[in-house]
Amino acid sequence: MLEPVLNVQERLAGKRSVLTKLRNEGFIPAIIYGKNVSSIPVAVAENELQKQIREHGRNTIFQIEVQRQKQKVLIRELQIDKVTNKMIHVDFMAVDEDTEVDTTVPVHLVGEAVGAREGGIVQHLLHELEISAKAEEIPEKIDIDISQLDIGDTILVEQIAPNYPFKINHAGTEPIVTILPPETSEVETDTGEESTGTQEENPEE
Known about the structure:
By secondary structure, this protein is mainly beta. Helix content is 14%, strand content 40%. The protein contains four helices and 13 strands. The chain is elongated and about 60 Å long. It starts with 7 loop residues before the first strand and ends in a 25-residue tail after the last strand.
């Protein structure tokens, strides 16, 4: 499978004013590091990076060309400005087929649980899973089929772990999703009986 190509350009490691100028021109300062690669400062067009992430996801291996050599990279860290919500810096990690990476992968629930159709409540407990995997084995997401779950059923980490070639770094007994019973509200019931007072009437003197 061919990796999507991400265009980058080399840049000089500069002062804050240089980085600000890059961002104002629509580029994101970035750095490439990793196996057999010394730290290389680069820049990537913001609109292209957004497009690639939207189409292929954060955990995809991208192919870039830098210093006249093609290199496979992963997005290791993506810094976001808390005020503008714009990307301001990217760390690319150079990888090969033997590189093992610790990362997080989102969990996606698939299907409608039997218990949900009966009024149960789907409680999604783990929205992300921490994994250790070879770079080329990192999935964009982990799909979990909940269509057969009834009220009271739970899927644990140990139940899905054998399905994948990588290690899931959670306790096997940790629940991922469970179906809770329907919520009930306490309703006062009318027994149809009149309540009797507990205080006896005083006899007339």
